[in-house]
Structure formats: C-alpha cells, structure tokens
Specification:
This protein is mainly alpha-helical. The protein is built from five helices and no strands. The chain has one domain. The radius of gyration is 16 Å and the shape is globular.
Length: 123
C-alpha cells in the first residue's frame, strides 16, 4: 500500500507543477519575442526551488513523503531540468567528473537528437 501512496504523492505534486508551468506560460505569452522566456523561467525557477527544498529537507530531516510530493512531483512536473541539474550537481559534489560530463553532454545532445528524430518520424 505504501507504493500506491507514494505514486499518489508524486502524481499530486506533478499535477500542481504542471499547472504552475502552464500559468507561467500564460503570464509570459504576450512578451512579443521568439525567445522561449517561459520555458527558461520555469527551468531556472525550478532549479532554484529544487535547491532550496533539497537543502531545507536535508537540514530538518524531512519525511520522504514531502520529498516525493514537492521535489519529485512538483519540481518534476514543473520542469525535469531541475532534476537533471540536481543530479548533475550531485555527480560534481561526489567528484564523478567524467560521469558528470557524460551525463550533462549526453542528456543535452541526445535529447536534442531525440526531439529531431521524433519530429522527423512523425512529420
């Protein structure tokens, strides 16, 4: 039953994070520029938020349920870039420099290639 509760927490957080990201998109829609400001804003705010929550949860020894709801769920639904950035920092902090480089470059380059491939296949 615990895994079901965990899944519901992640889902609830993702739901709220997705709504928050959409609201940012709506709020920034009329900026009149081709630059994707809303996505960049969500990614940077998500990174700041995951850093704040991660540190705060470690400091107060927060419950795993709170972590699932807010870090995995909300931040994950708001932007997966925040999770990618946190995992990258963990690799750097652990001194896993080659793994960090492989993960960071691989994620960005392969992600762009995958989007292009998917687009080409569906076109």
């Amino acid at each position: 039953m615990s895994i079901f509760k965990d899944i519901l927490l992640v889902g609830a957080g993702s739901f709220m994070g997705g709504i928050a990201r959409y609201l940012i998109s709506l709020a920034m829609k009329g900026m009149g520029t081709a630059f994707p400001w809303a996505t960049m804003t969500a990614n940077i705010v998500g990174c700041l938020l995951i850093g704040l929550l991660w540190a705060a949860f470690n400091r107060v020894n927060a419950s795993s349920q709170l972590n699932l709801l807010l870090i995995v769920g909300f931040c994950g639904g708001f932007t997966t870039f925040s999770t990618f950035s946190k995992e990258s920092l963990c690799l750097l902090q652990a001194g896993n420099y080659s793994t960090f480089i492989l993960y960071a470059l691989g994620s960005v380059v392969l992600g762009i290639i995958a989007v292009a491939l998917g687009y080409a296949l569906a076109k």
